[in-house]
Amino acid sequence: MISRPLLLIAPAVCVAVGLASGAAYAYFTSSGTGTGSASVGIMQTVTIASATVSPSTPLLPGGSGDVTLEVTNPNAFDATLVSVAGAGTITADSGHPGCTTTGVTFTDQTGLSTDIPADSTTEINLPGAASMSAASSPGCQGATFSIPVTITVQQS
Fold this sequence. Notes:
Distance between the termini: 74 Å
Number of strands: 9
Low-confidence stretches: 1-24
CATH architecture of the domain at 47-155: Sandwich
Structural class: alpha+beta
CATH topology of the domain at 47-155: Immunoglobulin-like
Radius of gyration: 34 Å
Number of helices: 1
């Protein structure tokens, strides 16, 4: 009697293993087809809204000061500011006609990773980005300088 139940159990185990391997084979060899689509939106231009914000560190002859920008992101998604580069001649405000030699330079800012939230204007401070040489005209005292820059952003 002991030998009969063992003979019945062995074929049952073989059938169970056989069924499991067939299911695994079907899983790994199945195929199918389908279609999909996506659309690409166009990133609107992120702009400098204003550069008239007072920097936290003023510019003095022989030193460096902060440059502060207000950047507007009109897109429905966040953008990341990755660089700011000088883009032209730096000039003094019209109230300082004696500022003939500004001596002001802008240091390009690279490797930035500043978030600009969707549909917003963000104030961005660039510490020590502007420098003023000691050779600046005396008429530049108290002037506000226009520093043309180009910004580079990417979608976050």
